[in-house]
């Protein structure tokens, strides 16, 4: 801790366990996150084949990027966009391999950089390489390429090829909005509405949607209708919502057309009219709106039922519709997110289906997958337990049923570890820490990574066992030798702090460097602290700032917190406002150090208006994660 009492993680041995990546907040998939209508990129007018004939491939590249922008502008993404892009190329008899080869040697502007990334991302003219693609997208985005910034917003929001990163989605949206782009303003409004990378501010969301709507943007108009329908930042006004949906629907906004369908179908705020519902549903479905396509089957079934006085098994239209409905209903529950490691094979079946079929082995593997992901993101014991319980409850899994099955099915390291987890946390049974730790050891001996990570934590902090830095070091070394990034980071901390071994700052630096080179955000952040404190390398505050920024851009909450501390005054021109904003972002990502720092600023009125209630709120949040400084501060404030 620095003299200012602002918490960073340079000297905090808790960083062994508490190296936080981005907390992946759960969020509903909102269709057409961005569908815009702006003039930032003017379409070319020359025929693309003529450009090729003349050898002016720069014009071809610009035209292809124009096309992608237009599709993104209409809310197209994913496979539909890829297919339309390929059709666009093929219809103009463009050889994708020729464009790809030219792009390799002509990274002359942001469009060519972005398009090469697009080819890598989608495997056009080459094998797919998402890492290379995203690096190129970032490079183009740094050159203020709007399409690259839009694509990255989408990628980080939905976690396409990368971990979900709401901080980056918010940051990119804010940047585009500040430059006056309707797309960015729409996205920024959405972030404020849902609390994506920032605090929820529905009034600000409403104002931003209105600003875009007033410019004639169909997505802004549709979203403003959504605000009036749900009372987001304004009073509920369904008549106004209907008028706005209708206006956007006429402008061919498929979401507005679908929303209009629902209003007509249900007579919600207007007179019920199934014919109008079908009309607008067809319009939306024709544009590829999946919800509209599914709804259309329901409406047609309803129409056939209402208009046919007699029908039997020969009524093939109705039979097809009913069969389609059955298929649709079976797809309602999506598979859960999985991780990609060799030690724990991800399951593919829905967890409730597994229970129904009695295939609880798959359920166990999926639950262990979830815990691994939580630990791998550096979340502490309190957060992991709470998130695990929420994960179970949200999926209507009966913990008692899992526990009973585990008692009689200790068939592999995952089931052994999970039974230990249930005993440790008192899930489905009374808590029994001794039995839990024995099971963790048994699973760890079978090379279960999750058990090894948990034991590393227990022996480092002395949780229900005597502290044993030798075991901490040996487990970290074993995981590191297996090539696991988390193990290498833990081992680096051991060498840096002399935990279970002699201090070797050079070796610590090399390990952090190795992990950082792999793109691991925690390794990048820790490398920044090496440069800041001169750990195994000469002090270089510029390099430290660079790595903090890079880790923050990857959504690492410790990186965001460290960057905040940098702006607070530990290494750059002081900007308390910037420090406050960064602490706020990291605090929202459940970073206990940032929560403490934010509370401290509120308590002292340091750069912001003094607010003891807010200070108590954030100290409490940090204290709940076992931050000892926050616990002490909270006791003092509550006694006043």
TrEMBL record:
Family annotation (PANTHER family): ACTIVATOR OF C KINASE PROTEIN 1-RELATED, CHITIN SYNTHASE REGULATORY FACTOR 2-RELATED
Q: Which residues does UniProt call coiled coil?
A: none
Q: Which domain of life is it from?
A: Eukaryota
Protein's UniProt name? Uncharacterized protein
Sorted alphabetically, which InterPro entries does this protein's record hold?
Mitotic_Regulator (IPR052945), Sel1-like (IPR006597), TPR-like_helical_dom_sf (IPR011990)
